[in-house]
Amino acid sequence: ITRDGSTVGTVAYMSPEQIRGQVVDQRSDLFSFGIVLYELIAGRTPFKRDSDAATMHAISAEAAEPLARFKANVSSALQQVIDKALQKEPSMRYQTAADFATDLKRIQSEISTPSLSSMPAGKPVLAVLPFDNLGSADREYFADGITDEVIARLARLKDLSVIAYSSASQYKK
């Protein structure tokens, strides 16, 4: 049950204008989507505090901590996209989902898959072949996720080069 002037939503994902009970539009949704992306990368929401009141204050007044504090190798371009999405003032954040998507696609295209010729000489190179899903077809994502996680963890080893999942996935099945 709601009434005029009341605040409705999941506190950790609300926009500053939503917390203040102001009019919201698509930019409020883009702020919330920025929180979700931050959480996917960092493993935590950017403004979550010990109480709802403290969380609402953080959303309204505090900057999110840099993603690099929680996840190594976050590009400055990705940090800039998240920062723009989490701007307190709606006119300073993404105005449309298309603009947001364009920047995310640009970052994705800038990430290059290393080829064998670009790998450092003398460093062992490993390709992790995709895991097979031996269960029901609706669980295919699980096999892909395990493969991706194994690659990500091996890639953290400084004395080993790992071929990207996108290159190895052609050998699935």
Descriptors for this entry?
43% helix; 7 helices; 173 residues; mainly alpha; two-stranded parallel sheet
Summary of the model, kept short:
This protein is mainly alpha-helical.
Spatial order of the strands forming the largest sheet: 1-2
Report the span from N to C terminus.
Answer: 51 Å
Question: Level of helix content?
Answer: 40-55%
Strand content: under 5%
User: Unreliable stretches, pLDDT < 50, 5 or more residues?
Assistant: none
Quaternary state reads: single chain
Strand runs, count:
2
Structural class call reads: mainly alpha
Number of helices: 7
Largest sheet: 2 strands, parallel
Spatial shape: elongated
Supply Rg. Answer: 20 Å
Q: Tell me, rounded to a whole number, the average pLDDT.
A: 85
Topology order in helix (H) and strand (E) letters: HHHHHEHEH
Structure description:
The chain has seven helices and two strands. β1, α6 and β2 form a beta-alpha-beta unit. It is elongated, with a radius of gyration of 20 Å. 14% of the residues are buried. The model has no long low-confidence stretch (mean pLDDT 85).
How is this fold's topology laid out?
Layout lengths: L15 H4 L6 H17 L9 H10 L14 H10 L11 H14 L14 E2 L13 H16 L5 E2 L2 H4 L5
Parallel strand pairs: 1-2
Helix pairs in contact: 4-5
